Amino acid sequence: MNKKKMIRLTALVGVATATGVVAEANQAHAATTTTTETTNQTTNASVESTQAAVDAAQSAFDTAQTSVDNAQANVTSASNNVTSASATLSSAIANKEAATSENIASATSAVSSQAVVVASASQAVSEQAGVVSAAASVQASAQAEATSASASLSSSSANVASATSALSAAEAALTSDQSTAANNLSAAESAASSASAAVSSGQAAVDNAQAVVASAQAIVEVESSDVINMSAAYITALKNYLANPSSANAAALQEVAKGADYVKELQQKFKSDASLDVVVDPSDPAVQEALSVYAVNLINQLRNQYGLTTAFGATANANVAALDFVKKYYDDEDWNIFGTTGSDGQGHNKNGLDAYADQLNTSIAEDAGSGLTTWVNGKATMATTTLHNLLYAVYSDIATMLFDDGGTNNWSHAQSIFEDGTILGTDGFNNVYLGVAFDKYGYAHYELYNATEGNQLGNNAYSLDVQTTAQTLLTNAQATLASAKASLQRMTTNLMVAKAAVVAAQDQLAALENSSANDLVAVTKARTQLASAETSYQTALATYKQKEEALKKAGDNLAAAQASLEAAQATLATAKAKLAELEETVANLTNTDQLLAAAQAAYEQAVANLTTATGNLGAAQVDLAKAESQLALAEDTAEQAKVRAAIAAQVDQQLNGSTANDHQSAGQDATSLKTNGRALTATVATASAAKQKQGANQGRLPQTGNDDQEASAMALVGLGMLGLTTGLYGYKKKKLTE
Fold first, then answer.
1. CA nearest 469: which of 216, 274, 275, 271?
2. Alpha helices of 226-315 — where are they, by DSSP H?
3. Residue 314 forms beta bridges with which residues?
4. What does the DSSP 8-state code read for residue 420?
5. How high does pLDDT run on average in the chain?
6. What is the mean pLDDT of residues 706-714?
7. What is the pLDDT at residue 21?
8. Residue of 369, 294, 286 whose CA lies nearest to 326
């Protein structure tokens, strides 16, 4: 059942006619010979009959609807045809008005002119087609030659590969043993070279160790004999100046010190020993120890002459701190304390001194000297400095601080050496240790630290006894020398073994070379064949490139010719289209009567067709309305049949069971009937309630049967009438909304 039919069925609530329900109820109650089974069969047959009528009406409605849809489509098409015919007729009328002799002559002339243009364009197409044909022929020939050249190149390449393989095989046969022997010789020669270099290095280590031993032996003599003696007059003048640094005392001190001449005299007293001319690293711990002990001994001798009893000390920790400070605040910061001439430098790095003093939580004073860049004795570089250079630099710096320290320095270096418990007016120097370091420019830095238990700068102290220091250095140097000699001996033995291996490898290679004459001939032949194959390949490659270039050129020419042909064809097509348009214009101007008559006839026919289609649509709509009305009536009849069947079944059930139910209590008040998914409820009065209303209903209620049965039947009839009214109203409202 379709959707529309379902809507109508659900709108019918409890539909029942008074005639059918009452008749069936009275018959079931009065005619005792009619059974419930017979009644149900009759109502069921009625339901089936009315449903068949609904199906037939639905089919007729669908057919009518299709007819209306088709008629509507025909009307739309006919209307469009009328519009088109009207436009054609208007055009024909306008064309008739324009068909003057002048316009016809002008249009005919335009056709003639355009025919000339078409002929010219057609000739151009024919000529360009010939050009394309010729270019295609050239391109095909070039393609064939390029294909042939490619095949020749592939063949030549295969020949080269074959010759290369043959040469590789011949060379492998020739060099299989020779290669091994040559590799052995190369390895042996490399080992011999390495061994020889090791021997040279070992010998240098031995020589250097021997020089260090000699230097250690000489240091004792140097440190014990190098003393800077101050005159009594100098000491007196210095004490006066330090006690009262007035201009007069400064001048007197400068006079007694004798300036640079006396410094040169002292510097010339430095004892040079050839054993000290060994290259060393200034930051080497052993060298650091020798330098700091040497400097502290010179300073302590001066302090003793001055009358002081407290001495400076030297420790490994102070030296490490000096190296760290100079690297961080001079080398890393590119801080050149003296510059290139001694007068253009940056001076002391005071910020660095303050920062490092905070880091170590102590007091620091710094003296600096020209160090390796001593203008008196010439300049030595850090890379080639010797122990002699370093010791001389320390001696020269300290002497210069005493006797050539006027001017802007105001004898501050001498003050730092001879003050006790304070340096340059700064307290906190009661336990002074000296660290010596050279910066990357070659200048010497003498760092004076006040050692405490917290900073541990006084730990790992050096012995200031020259003999003990020198003996330690000598012992270490001798141990290094012994180790270097033993290493040199091992290296020498390895060199002898390596040289013997070289001789054996040379003999093996010579023997193989004498026995490989046949292999050499095969190699020579293979090389000749390879050279020939490579020459052929290069020739084929050149030819291939030439043919490929010719093919590309022919392809470009063909493409250009085809493009020109397409352009000519487009020009011809445009000219032909223009000619056809002009010819159509002439034809229209010379056949205006016929065109107008045809357009008029077509328009009239289109109007007639629209009239017919409109009439057909009206007739189809009338048929559709009839079919829809018949469908609604059939559906209503079917619904009523279903309701009657349901009510009859309920009434039969009540009548058949009335005797057994006469004495039931007054609690039985309602019976529910369900029709097509909806509930029909009838109120059933009890016996006492029916008798109370009997007087009021005596004139209009049927008296057949007992009171209870009559009340029940009439209640069902009334409910059926209410349901019929409600159902029909709902159906009509539904039709209006649709």
1. 216
2. 232-243, 247-257, 259-268, 285-306
3. 434
4. S
5. 79
6. 44
7. 44
8. 369
pLDDT higher at 446 or 507? 446
Strand partners, 450: 432
In degrees and rounded to multiples of 5, residue 227 shows phi and psi of: -135, 135
Rounded Cα–Cα distance for residues 19 and 372 (Å): 144
- d(Cα 301, Cα 164) in Å, to the nearest integer? 87
Confidence at 76, pLDDT banded by 50, 70, 90: very high
Structure tokens at 216: 């250690």
For the record, the structure tokens of 73 come out as 């489509």
- Report d(CA 85, CA 609) in Å as an integer: 12
94: tokens are: 């306008």
- The 10 Å CB-count burial string (b at 16+, else e) for 180-213 is ebbebbeebbebbeebbebbeebeebbebbbbbb
User: 328-335: which pairs have CB atoms within 8 A and are 24 or more residues apart?
Assistant: 328/352, 328/356, 329/353, 329/355, 329/356, 330/439, 330/440, 330/445, 331/439, 331/440, 335/439
Q: Assign 491 a pLDDT band (cuts: 50, 70, 90).
A: confident
pLDDT of residue 376: 42
Q: Which amino acid belongs to residue 708?
A: D
Split at pLDDT 50, 70, 90, the class of 138 is very high
Cα(347)–Cα(631) distance, integer angstroms:
122
Pairing status of strand 444-450 against strand 364-369: antiparallel
- CA 573 from centroid of its chain's CA atoms: 55
The three-point CA angle 704-709-715 to 5° equals 105
- Cβ neighbours of 657 (radius 10 Å): 9
Element (H, E) at 53: helix 36-98
In order of 33, 289, 307, the CA distances from 461 in angstroms are 146, 10, 24
Nearest to 22 by CA among 661, 491, 724, 639: 724
State whether the Cα torsion 502-503-507-510 is positive or negative.
Answer: positive
Q: DSSP label at 671?
A: E
Is the pLDDT confidence value at 23 over 60? Answer: no
The span from the CA of 23 to the CA of 42, in Å, is 13
Q: Is the pLDDT reported for residue 612 higher than 70?
A: yes
Residue 72: closest CA among 553, 591, 615: 615
End-to-end alpha carbon distance in the chain: 18
Percent of the chain with pLDDT over 90: 42
Three-state secondary structure call for residue 135: helix
Tell me how far apart the alpha carbons of residues 729 and 636 are, in angstroms, rounded to a whole number.
Answer: 12
Inter-residue contact 646 to 673 (CB < 8 Å): yes
pLDDT tens digits, 94-136: 988 888 888 999 999 999 999 999 999 999 999 999 999 999 9
Name the CA radius of gyration of the chain, rounded.
Answer: 68
Highest mean pLDDT among 176-180, 542-546, 689-693: 542-546
User: What pLDDT was estimated at residue 692?
Assistant: 42
